Amino acid sequence: MKIGVFVCHCGSNIGGTVDAAKVAEAAREFPDVVFTSDTMYACSEPGQDGIIQAIKDNQLDGVVVSSCTPRMHEPTFRRTVERAGLNRFMFEMANIREHVSWIGKDKEANTNKAIELTGIAVEKLRRDQPLFAKQFDINKRVLVIGGGVAGIQAALDCADGDREVVLVERESTIGGKMAKLDKTFPTVDCSSCILGPKMVDVAQHPKIQLYAMAEVEEIGGYVGNFEVKIRRKAPYVNWDLCTGCGLCMEKCPSKKSTDRFNEQVGSTTAINIPFPQAIPKKAVIDPKFCIKLTKGKCGICAKICPTKAIVFEQQEEIISESVGAIVAATGYDLFDISKYGEYGGGRLPDVITGLQYERLLSASGPTGGHVKRPSDGKEPKTIVFVQCVGSRDKSVDRPYCSGFCCMYTAKQAILTKDHIPDSTSYVFYMDIRSPGKMYDEFTRRAMEEYGTQYVRGRVSMIYPQGDKLMVRGADTLMGTQVEVEADLVVLAAGAEAAVGAPQLAEKLRISYDKYGFFMESHPKLRPVETNTAGVYLAGSCQGPKDIPASVAQGSAAAAKVLALFAKDKLENDPMISLVDMKRCVGCGKCVRVCPFGAIKEIDVRGEPKAEVIETVCQGCGLCTATCPQGAIQLSHFTDNQILAEVNALCQL
Amino acid sequence: MPALAGKELRIVGFLCNWCSYGGADTAGVGRFSQPTDLRIIRVPCSGRINPLFVAKTLLSGADGVLVSGCHPRDCHYAEGNFYARRRLEVFKRFLPTMGIDPDRFDYTWVSASEGQRWQKVVTTFTEQIHKLGPAPRFGFAHEQNPATAAAC
Asked: Is A113–B36 a contact, with Cβ atoms under 8 angstroms apart?
């Protein structure tokens, strides 16, 4: 076997703390290595051409590139060696950037470590075999989890691309957080006027199957062939019969139910349609407040319903769907403001979140668009906005910036002036972060045109005095303490991962960060893909995002899905397990351990043997570590290869 | 390939490709400086690791072995790390029987986003191994010194 080793300088990224030339020189001593060189940028066009030339000139059988992480450029170099006529699996990579040059400053130690890592790559490559992919059929339906604006966009784009879409929404209506907004920044567009038509499109699209009040229960399978179980909660109303007339809402005697859509500002009836533009526009009974369900009496709605749609005995059901790709668009939740005890959120009725204030401003909200204090219904004249409540604050474990609060506060300050012209708004802020198109101009308008008083500094406490709220804080530009007598305080609560996001990530087998936001495959170059093939991300489930970014990501995820579905067959990753029939004793341990059901027991001349279903195997190697005989081996990560790496490292 | 005499000990890490290898990458991208002793062997899943690899590594002269995978419940292959956890926990208890200090082996969970955690894990483990010092090279004396081997 003839091996070529290419050591990359990566400019000064590697070259700065690793002597790449020395690594290349030392690599010449490794067994089977016939050619080594160091190159400035191995991944660049001249770098790749150099590799191809060297393969041809030296008739190399395999290539090792010592450069960055294989998670970044392994596919790049696999294509390179393929272009030179080698099998793309006759390639190994040594990670001397992320794991060496960037984490250590000692050049001698780094160079030594880089030589060793190159050495184990050579030892592994010596035992590599050419591998060939198999093709398998794909199911060209897509599951979109979450019906907020990102999910809606992804669903519509996929459906317009002629693919069947299953849209699963936890609440009884799609629309997500955007549907709760009154206006959107920086255009002050009416939110439901721009989202409403999209929601209707979802309802009317022949390619979209919408499951509202449903959650993903279980996900099995792999790219192209996912099996999904969806748990549909019971609305206690037969939605096929319900016409959304709203008669039941008028007559329901239980009028004190939690109004989830209006963010608990005001209350609603036990049977309700969340808001007039709801999609699907169907009634839902809240079992916690329904007198019939809690006490067994009442049943008025069932008596007056013109279509006899009320079913008090309804049970939740499990629906199975087969899809080929999944878009997660589960959005975010607001930070729980009661964690700031000194602000009195949750304790003082007139300290509310931005989203609650949004409902107060909205014409379809509980007050019909008249701003009224929750405590006594009076119109507030002095309103204080407090920014960064649950963002950029390590003490509540939210060190990140939520990104959109500066803007929604500016918008709400502007809207407040429109609603109550003789009002005064104060905004306590740390900095203003408004990097989007027309965003900075918008916040300036709030200050200059609408006379909003921006005070730079944090609020230390809020306490009631008479029917007012005293807001005590600092003005760090003036260097003084300030105190504002407010009628209403609006806390710009930051964003956090949606409830249940980590659990969903576990079902999807994707990673999530320590705050519960889903991890993209690469923060810059693969922002909507995950490390699990066929699972894509859209919107705030990946991190706080405003509407344009969520919509853009929804479309981007849809583009990825459509690109995946453009092929009729997918190729599997050939790094899969293979059974040595001579050694297999048919004990069946591998069959039981495989998480994908990729191994089946077959009969070979009257004896049980294991066989791998090649297109189903995902290459985890659980079976290989389990097999007592060593009969089933994961290609490219065989026992011999890993032990060869160990040997290379432990040679004395 | 001798470890850098005097400066380094020989520590081998088996890392799953999806979480911990990614976490080590994240630590690199974040320039979180770490001791240079650890050499990483990439495996697809922590469930791929046969405890005998670890035994073989320690018997071949490594001073420490670290295994790291995805956090339990967060495995790319659904349940690989559960198998890893069960096998490695049993294996750790078995180490003294082989005459190996169990402190020379550890397994942990680091996700792809936890660069800082990886830095901490590596630093702590390396310090632990340095405290223990080089592993006794029992049974392999002749490999170290050809002269004594000839004398045997």
From this structure: yes
Q: Which residue in A69, A637, A650 is closest to B44 by CB distance?
A: A637
pLDDT tens digits for B72-110? 988 889 889 999 999 999 999 999 999 999 999 999 999
Interface size, chain A vs chain B, as Cβ–Cβ contacts under 8 Å: 169
Torsion of CA A126, A128, A130, A132, to 10 degrees: -170
Mean pLDDT of A555-582: 95
Which two tokens mark B111?
Answer: 């996700």
Q: Is the pLDDT of residue A457 over 70?
A: yes
Residue A520 backbone class (left: φ over 0; alpha: ψ -120 to 50; beta: rest): beta
How far apart are alpha carbons A504 and A217 in whole angstroms? Answer: 9
B25 and A69 within 8 Å at the Cβ level: the answer is: yes
Backbone angles phi, psi at A95, to 5 degrees: -90, 95
pLDDT of residue B3: 57
pLDDT in tens, A352-389: 999 999 999 999 999 999 999 999 999 999 999 999 99
Question: B128 CA to chain A: closest CA distance, Å?
Answer: 19
Amino acid at the residue B26: T
Task: Give pLDDT tens digits for A94-113.
Answer: 999 999 999 999 999 999 99
Residues of A in contact with B31 (CB under 8 A): 102-103
Q: What is the CA radius of gyration of chain A?
A: 30
**pLDDT, position A14:** 96
Residues of A in contact with B83 (CB under 8 A): 593, 622, 625-626
What are the tens digits of pLDDT across the range A136-195? 999 999 999 999 999 999 999 999 999 999 999 999 999 999 999 999 999 999 999 999
| A chain contacts of residue B43, beta-carbon cutoff 8 Å | 621, 637, 642
**Are A51 and A4 a contacting pair, CB within 8 Å?**
yes
Q: How far apart are CA B36 and CA B49, in angstroms?
A: 23
Residue A78 predicted with pLDDT over 70: yes
Q: Would you call B33 an interface residue with chain A, using a CB distance cutoff of 8 Å?
A: yes
Q: What is the pLDDT of residue B141?
A: 46
Q: Do B47 and A625 touch (CB under 8 A)?
A: yes
Which pLDDT score, from 0 to 100, does residue A421 have?
A: 96
For B10, the token pair is 């020989």
What would the two tokens of residue A190 be? 């009416």
**Residue-wise DSSP of A343-388:** GTTTTSTTEEEHHHHHHHH-TTSTTTT----TTT-PPPSEEEEEEE
User: A526-540: string of b/e by CB count within 10 Å (b at 16+)?
Assistant: ebbbbbbebbbbbbb
The band of B4, judged by pLDDT with boundaries at 50, 70 and 90, is low
Local structure of residue A40 (DSSP, 8 states): S
- Residue with the two structure tokens 């970044």: A72
pLDDT tens per residue across span A500-530: 999 999 899 898 998 999 999 888 889 999 9
List, in sequence order, the alpha helices (H) in chain B. 20-29, 51-59, 80-94, 115-132, 141-144, 146-151
Q: What residues in B contact A226, CB-CB < 8 Å?
A: none
* Residues of A whose CB is below 8 A from B42: 70
**Residue B143 contacts A where some CB pair is shorter than 8 Å:** yes
Answer yes or no: do A575 and B31 touch at CB < 8 A: no
CB within 8 Å: A646 and B80: no
**Distance (Å, whole) CA A8 – CA A24:** 9
Tell me which chain A residues have a C-beta less than 8 angstroms from the C-beta of B107: none
Is the CB of residue B145 less than 8 Å away from at least one CB of chain A? no
Please give the Cα distance from A427 to A450 (Å, whole number): 12
- Give the three-state DSSP class for A543: coil
Q: Is B31 in contact with A102 (Cβ distance < 8 A)?
A: yes
- Which member of B4, B45, B57 has the closest CB to residue A646? B57
Contact predicate B24/B40, CB 8 Å: yes
